[in-house]
Amino acid sequence: MLSRKQRFLTKTGLYFCYFVILAFFLFPLLWVISLSLKTREELFATPPTIIPETFAFENYARVIEQSGVLNYIQNSFVIVTATVIVTLLTAIPAAYAISRFKFKGKSPLLVIILMTQMISAVVISIPLYRLFAQLDLINNYVVLIIVYVAVVLPFSTWFLKGYFDTIPYAMDEAAIVDGCSKFQILTKILIPTSVPGIVSVTILVAVQSWSQFVIPYILLDDDRLYPVSVGVMNLQSTQESVSTHLLAAGSVISVLPVIILFILLQRFIVGALTSGAVKG
């Protein structure tokens, strides 16, 4: 039985840890936002300050008008939307088969899927570039989307398989008694029941695809086709000599769509992860 003083010290230590972790993750974001609102003279002020003396919102206007960041965001929307659709169309049937069917080699297949998730995009980028350069497929969105799907598909399949496992098999048996086929069980029972899990996968795939840098940087060399993660980097070379504040403004603009999406739909992620944890 903890005394009152011990409970107070425990809560104080716990909240201190929360504060340190929160500051660790939020400080880089706050610093970028601060840089994006500073004038060029304030960038080199000593000592540096987190709050600008004058909020230079014109940095954002200059980035939007002169850098083509909106075109980069549009490119990212096209790539991410196609990636999410193809990934769901592939991962949902795969997860359904792994979750509901027994077949030879199922356990090794799960291990192989998990192993492919551990391969970094940096490792495969150079071989992919050499392959697609020989096939004259550089600057091709279809190829880029296929690579994106290959990167996110193992995680998506594992996630959905875990979510399908939380749904009682008795629901499948009841549907079979009512005359449903395997395809109808998937489309009329599992998918409607798994909406939180599917939405979670959609968000996580969208975030991961939106933030991809190495793969599009390697497979695209036409700046008109760049996604925003690569296009923002051009602010370093296409603007004036000191462009840190413009680069920061471009970075903030580039992450806004993902942050808004995550805030709007975060309850689905929490719900899906909680379901998986309960099952585990």
UniProtKB/TrEMBL annotation:
Primary residence: membrane
Membrane topology qualifier: Multi-pass membrane protein
GO cellular component: plasma membrane
Domain of life (superkingdom): Bacteria
Domain ABC transmembrane type-1: 73-265
Entry keyword annotation includes Membrane: yes
Keywords for this protein: Cell membrane, Membrane, Transmembrane, Transmembrane helix, Transport
Record-linked InterPro entries: BP-dep_ABC_trans_perm, MetI-like, MetI-like_sf
CDD domains: TM_PBP2 (cd06261)
Transmembrane portions of the chain: 12-33, 77-97, 109-129, 141-164, 185-207, 242-265
Keyword S-adenosyl-L-methionine found: no
Gene Ontology BP annotations: transmembrane transport
Gene3D superfamilies: MetI-like (1.10.3720.10)
Location within or outside the cell: Cell membrane
Family statement drawn from the similarity comment of this UniProt entry: Belongs to the binding-protein-dependent transport system permease family.
Name of the protein in its database record: ABC transporter permease
